[in-house]
Amino acid sequence: MDPTRPLAVTVRIDSPQVVAYRLWFRRPDESDWTAFATGDDQSPNPSTYAVVPLPRGSVLRFFALISGNPQTAYRIEVVVAQGGAPVKPPLLLTGTTDGDGTASAGGEVEP
Amino acid sequence: MTPVRRAAWFAGALLLAAPAAAQKPYAVPESPAFTFLNATPAQVSRPATARALAANVLNGVSPLTGQLQQGVAMDMAPWSFIPSVSIPLSEYQRSRAKYVLANTQLSLATVRAAADTAATDLAVGVRITLVDHSDPMADTGFTNELRRRLRTCLPDQPTDAAMAQAEACSREQTQALRRQWLGDRGHWNDASLAAASAGGWRFDRSVLGAAQWQGWAAWATGAVPLGRGGQAIGQVRYNAHAGEQDDGLAYGGRALYGSAVMNAYVEVAGGNRTGETSARAEWTGGLEFRAADNLWISTGFGSRATAAGESRGVLVADLRWQLADGPHLGMGQR
């Protein structure tokens, strides 16, 4: 990762649930997270969000609330890229909703 | 309410209405393979990727002996195994083909054979929902409101405590909105059509190469609304399960109309099965009165087949427990 260039985070939702999600980053010297994007399944699919250049050691975090029919499969893919090329393998979030139809999914990427 | 839940309610109502000898579980099973084997697995794995499916399948075979493991239970959506297939909510609501694909479930189960503890019975099944107008996820009004509520649940900081709080908020909002949609907005009796089928094999000594076909079974259920206060449900089951007593066709139907405290109903059940002396349909009609929450008193009359294969009139006086969020709940909240 080049710490002088912006990053782009792309979120793609492949499954039939309502999804609301938020993205944060945290620089190595910070204790709080900074939210840089909030989206949902009605946002363009996929949705791409720009991130300011980040120093090495920074972390990106994704968290999604998922709600649909009970015991249904969900699949969300999050890709962090720079200059159009992924900087890490995609974050693939899969599973099934619970008996109430809800689930949450999240993950971290250190670009 | 999904067709399965509605069918479960209906089956439960039938079971409690009829004498034990005439109990007929017509519901389209949620996991046909489990029903085919008459199994109620304590734990069901639900792989959502091809890799997870492969791991589950490998776990179902002993690495030492190559024999099938007993007690495997899987429920899965086949579309989720194909990375190139995408069914976002917008397409689920727009495309009938994608709706059906998303609601197609495969099930697989293994159990110890009843007559031979060394043998394993294996069944695979498929369930398809063709139409379900009582599916709130197909309603853009419901999903727009759910989306608005979920966004308010998102945490400001992604800490463990904040995310747990967000999950609890999401669950609470989902449950509340679903109840409201099914009840207050009068969707409990919307039209639906679902079908399922399963087949099975017995593996002697649980060896993979020693499979014997055990037969198959199929189910179908459909429901249509009768105005805002009624519903008609029809169910059919065909069983070709290797010489069992209930092999053959069985069907049932129920229509009801009423209010939050009283319903008029008509039920019919019949079939043409190996172990039955009569192919005549049995019917019952009458009134149901709510005695307490989820408890109804049913009274009426109808006909039943005798052991000699003839029909005779019967009077019905029963208690019925409402097993799920069914018609009575919905009408109570109109």
Describe this structure in words.
The complex is a heterodimer of chains A (111) and B (334). Chain A is mainly beta. Chain A has a single domain (7-106), classed as Sandwich (Lipoxygenase-1), CATH 2.60.60. Chain A is built from no helices and nine strands. Chain A has strands at 7-13, 18-26, 34-40, 47-51, 59-67, 73-82, 85-86, 91-96, 102-109. In chain A, strands 1, 4, 6, 7 and 8 form a five-stranded antiparallel beta sheet that branches. In chain A, strand 6 (73-82) and strand 7 (85-86) form a beta hairpin. Chain A starts with 6 loop residues before the first strand and ends with a strand. Chain B is α+β, with helices and mostly antiparallel strands and 334 residues long. Chain B has eight helices and eleven strands. In chain B, strand 6 (230-240) and strand 7 form a beta hairpin. In chain B, helix 6 (140-153) runs antiparallel to helix 7 (160-182). The model of chain B is unreliable at 1-25 and 323-334 (pLDDT under 50).
Task: Please count the beta strands of chain A (DSSP E, at least 2 residues each).
Answer: 9
Note the beta-strand portion of chain B.
35-45%
The number of helices of chain A is 0
Describe the largest sheet of chain A.
5 strands, antiparallel
Instruction: Compute the CA-based radius of gyration of chain B.
Output: 22 Å
**Can you give the helix content of chain B as a percent range?**
25-40%
Radius of gyration of chain A: 14 Å
Span between termini of chain A: 6 Å
> Which segments of chain A are poorly predicted (pLDDT under 50) over 5 or more consecutive residues?
none
Strand order of the largest sheet of chain B: 1-2-3-4-5-6-7-8-9-10-11
Shape annotation of chain A: elongated
Give a quick account of the main beta sheet of chain B: strands, pairing sense, barrel closure.
11 strands, antiparallel
Can you tell me the CATH class of chain A? Mainly Beta
Going by helix content, strand content and strand pairing, the class of chain B is alpha+beta
Poorly predicted residue ranges of chain B: 1-25, 323-334
CATH architecture of chain A: Sandwich
Order of secondary-structure elements of chain A:
EEEEEEEEE
Number of strands of chain B: 11
